[in-house]
Amino acid sequence: MPLKHLELHNCNSAILTCMEELSQLTALVIDRFPELISIPENLLRDKPHLECLKVSSCPKLQSLFPEFSGLNSLRSLTIRWCEELQMLPQGFQNLTGLESLEISDCHSLITLSEKHLTSLEYLAIMFCPSLAAFPDNPEHLSALKSLAIISCPLIEFLPDGIKHAIALRSLEIRSCPRMTELPEWTALISKDVVRRTEAKTGGKFLMSLTDTPPQTWIDTLGTP
Question: Which UniProt keywords apply (predicted)?
Answer without folding.
Answer: Plant defense
